[in-house]
Amino acid sequence: MKILITGIAGFGGSHLAELALREGAQVVGTVLPNASTDNLAGFRDAVETLPCDVTEPGAAARVLRGVRPDRLFHLAGASVVGTSWEHRVNVLRTNLEGTFQVLEGLRAHPVPCLLVSSGEVYGAVPERAQPIREEQLLSPLSPYALSKACQEMYARYYANAEGIPLVVVRAFNHVGPRQGPGFVWSDIARQVAAIEKELSPPVLEIGTVTTRRDFTDVRDMVRAYWLALERAKPGETYNAASGTAVAIQEILDGFLALAARPIEVRPSPARVRPVDLSLLSGDAGRLTTLTGWRPRIPLRQSLADVLVDWRGRP
User: Fold this and answer.
1) Model's pTM, two decimal places?
2) Which CATH code of 3.90.79.10, 3.90.226.10, 3.90.25.10, 3.40.250.10 fits the domain covering 184-212+245-278+299-311?
3) Where are the alpha helices (DSSP H) in the chain?
4) Of 123, 168, 208, 283, which has the highest C-beta tally within 10 A?
């Protein structure tokens, strides 16, 4: 089986590529021209990468025509919620135009495709209605969440009106090695690692710590993608989440407990988002019923692995 991953060198894309290799697949992926492929360092020779900006008209179609994959996983795009207000034009253009071009490519070369959306599309949901089920109305509250909700509308049209075999997974917060800056786990671990190396004073800056999020290790999350595309009917949408919300304060305490030296914590107003959901937790019961998927990796292992990853970076 040959699979194509858009954004293969990204956080989720690189872990999905590793999973696909373990499953015995031939793996091809798109990478932005001149972008780093450091995330593929451990297995670069085992995958084929193609320079491609999927937002360019016809680029995705050319890749699909040339590769002729058996399955497509569309992960390319802007993924940082916190900076999406500042970069809203780029976020919306990248995610919407990129998805449109991929779907148009699929119209000419139809293969089963998984589109990765986000739990952020639900917006502010009362605690009594959480963990959130797929039937919850979408109410995006950030430019990033808006872009993902619009991607889903594109996907629904192409699945229902054009007959493209598409599946959507709404991934809640996922964490793990190789995640870039701009995400709370990476931002904490990066500061801890820099302090341990005496590259910065022993002071860690952080934004809001009372928000609660549903964290799943990325290595579990990509397994959800794989199983969903393998078993779901076209046009269906699934949450991928642990079902348990954890406060940012608990994550911060976990990293501080692993730190090699004492660290002072200081609140930073600059790190507070313009709009920050107090609670976001997902119900993955529909996906579990279909595939048996559940997260396997405990958060304590994810914490340790993320910190080791940042300690090893230059």
Assistant:
1) 0.96
2) 3.90.25.10
3) 11-22, 59-67, 88-108, 143-160, 184-196, 218-231, 248-258, 285-291, 299-311
4) 168
